Structures are given as structure tokens and as C-alpha cells.
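Running this now, will post back.
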Amino acid sequence: MWDAGETILNLWNVGVWYGDYHALRGVSMDMRRNEITALIGPSGCGKSTLLRSLNRMNDLIPGTRVDGSITVQGQDIYAPDVDPVEVRRHIGMVFQKPNPFPKSIYDNVAYGPRVLGQKKGLDDVVEEALTRAALWDEVKDKLKSSGLALSGGQQQRLCIARCIAVRPQIILMDEPCASLDPIATLKIEDLMQELASDYTIIIVTHNMQQAARVSDRTAFFTAKLDGDGERFGELVEYDVTHTMFTQPKDQRTEDYVSGRYG
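Update: finished.
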């Protein structure tokens, strides 16, 4: 078992550009294995931009580039010889809106392992992933039914099962509960805390109560204007979640978490 508290993901002076627009600037932070890290802050502060840079999803947007360094266990994920598809296998992503494939529940979960060439033992992989995603008991008798027929909360758990079926090290979640009702949200939050025993989870959330409930550490981002009047995102403060919400070091953090701004 990995040592708790060991740094798995290191960011140093990370910036993200969209063409000539410098959207996110100077982010440095370490994220630790088997912890949940929450990224919070007002709209437009670069939270999702940063999240997408952690598994090279931004590569899919023309003109995007990342400077600084992002390393996973010491490996620079933007090094010239690194395959972004391989990066995404080790660093999975769950999006804001549930996006199951228009396939059966079984085929949704088996998709990743099949792409990786696995042919045997798929039944076990599917059952294990759905069990880990707290969905198996609800769908075990309808695995051939369409994933699109599930409720919103079930669809999101199906997407989590699809993500963990390829056994990533890190799971990124971009506001995974934004489109869910409170009961479904609670199930996802419980699930995140269970999965953190085996995975490192990084979540973007606008819900500060959610960040306070589920995360071990919290990073607060804000948006600023540079000398040319251009808006950009920057990291203000990063600390243990309890400290961030009870004794933040920066007044901007305190104003945000107390609801006075943002």
C-alpha cells in the first residue's frame, strides 16, 4: 500500500495559454496520494482550466499550451515522449454532466478495458467497477439496458465506474454533482470518500459545503486583472481543508468562504 501523504502530483509555476491569452498563471502546489483535493473559487478563475491540464484534456483545444511543469511521480506529463492517451489512462476524468455512451451499462464499463486490449475477465472487471461505484446492486439485473435509461445520479456513478474500470491512479472530477439532486449528490460524496482509499481525487466544486465535507485539502483560486486589463486566474491559498475554512491566511480566502464575495 502506498504511504499516505506521499506527493503524487507536483505543479510548479504552471500557466495555461489559449492562443495569446494567458488564462492561468503561476500555480505551484503538491497533491498527495489517497487524498481528496478540492479546487474552489469564483467563475472564471481557472479551476476547470487547471483540472483539464492535469490529464492533458486541454490538448484537444486548438492553440492551448501549458508552461511550467506538471509531474506525476516525478514524470513530466508534458514531456515530448509522453503519450497523452497514456496520461489519460492513469489520470481519469468525470465531467460535470453525466455522459454515458449510448451503449449498454455493461459496454459502458467494459469500453476502456477493451480499448486497452483486454478480452478475458471483463465480467469481473465490470462487476468490480460497478460495485466500487456503488451501482452494482441497482443495475446487476439490467446490464444489457442502455446506460442512458438510468437516472442522473446513476449515470454519474456509471461514468465513475467507467473511469475506474481502467484502474487509474488519479481521478479528476469537474463539478460532478452540479446537475444532481441533493440525495444523488450525497451518494457521490460518500463514494468519493470511499474511493480515496485507493485513488487520489481532485475535484472542482462551486459548493463550498461540499469542499468542506469531502476534501482533505482545498485550493482557493481567484480571478484578477493584469496591467493590460486582461482577466486571469491565480492560486491564492492552498492548505488543509479545515484550516482553509476556519483560519485562512489570506483575507480573500476568508471573504470567499464566508460568502462575502464571489
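The mean pLDDT is 93. More later if anyone needs it.
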